[in-house]
Amino acid sequence: MEPHLFSPLQIRDLHLKNRLVMSPMQQYSSPDGLVGPWHLVHLGSRAVGGVGLVITEATAVTPEGRNTLFDTGLWNEAQVAAWRPVVEFVQAQGTKIAVQLWHAGGKGSHAHPAAGFHYISPAQGGWVTKSASSVSLDKQHTAEALTIPEIQALIADFAAGAQRAVAAGFDAIELHAGHGYLFHQFYSALANQRTDEYGGSFENRIQLLIETVAAIRAVIPVSMPLLVRLSAVDFSDQTHAWGLTDSVRLTALLQQHGVDVVTASAGGFSAPDKASVVPLYQVPYAEKIRAETGVLTGAVGLITTPEQANALITTGQADLVVLARELLRDPYFPLHAARALHLETPAPVQYLRAFPAAGH
User: Out of 119, 181, 285, 332, which one is annotated catalytic?
Assistant: First the structure.
């Protein structure tokens, strides 16, 4: 059968029932990095709604890796215990769940969005932010450059976070390496001004991500998929900005080190021209990476209709459709999409009266 939106996908030993993925979306509802009832309902309702894979919001591997004091974490055992019931509920719906591990780097230490999302200093309860270089990424404060020992410690923090993800029962792990956060701060020359082995050349700037992937792959089961979200382009016309050719080259190397899926997002240091932000505007990044590397890709960016999503799979532009805002608007998008496309997907037995099988 030709692949379509509701065809299954095998990634290592992970079986996804369809190609719809819930994108990571920050909830700013986790004091001390702990998830709770909000996350159970937020993530669980999308699993009830029928997505094949839920990816959690960006989850910090250290307290200083957060963007705000209210981001989720996996740096201690209490957080592992808090994640377990959420993971188990999602899985009980026949949906798989991945945790997105993350470090905000120089974009960290901000107030809650409801309080203005401004930088908070250590004296105000924040922390000293660290990045590839001593640069200002939020136009409010300047981060400090990480030392080599600090970089090595961060790689170990990611590996420890991955081990906790396994202990919490997650089906897969995604590394957030885009949107101007730590890994992007290293591989993009817009933020990386280092002159040591982690700066300068393409090979040096990607080294932190490559070493972290290798460290994680070494401590998780061979059967567990490892995903990476990249910013495929920098949305900048500067000659040293990161571009799609760089992302293709990086993806090929990530594949060699055990990465199974790349989600091709974009930006993080600057925004795209508003006129270019149209439906499916980021899909060409996933399509190009997939065509040139053979790596499974996830497509993002103003995908809002069942027909758009299905076409991405049937035409081979991407292997997964990663939805964010549309799933906030409609947790049951997969069930509605199946009906619109005249394709079968089972609704929970509790909801069958609203989603009867075809012909009933």
Answer: 181
Q: By C-alpha distance, which of 69, 190, 73 is closest to 132?
A: 190
Cα–Cα distance, 117 to 83 (Å, whole number)? 26
Q: How does pLDDT run across 310-347, given as a tens digit for each residue?
A: 999 999 999 999 999 999 999 999 999 999 999 888 89
For residue 21, what are the CA distances in angstroms to 52, 92, 131, 295, 348? 6, 17, 30, 17, 18
Residues 129, 144 contacting (CB under 8 angstroms): yes
Asked whether the CA dihedral 255, 259, 260, 263 is positive or negative, the reply is negative
What b/e string do you get for 121-144 counting C-beta neighbours within 10 Å, with b at 16 or more? eeeeebbebbbbbebebbeebebe
Residue 119 parent element (H or E): none
Which sign does the torsion angle of CA 207, 212, 218, 221 carry? negative
User: What is the value of pTM for the model shown?
Assistant: 0.96
Q: Per CATH, is 9-351 categorized as 3.10.450.50? A: no
pLDDT tens digits for range 51-77: 999 999 999 999 999 999 999 999 999
- Tell me the residue type at 136: S
Domain boundary assignment for the chain? 9-351
Q: For residue 119, indicate whether it is catalytic.
A: no
Q: Give the chain's length.
A: 360
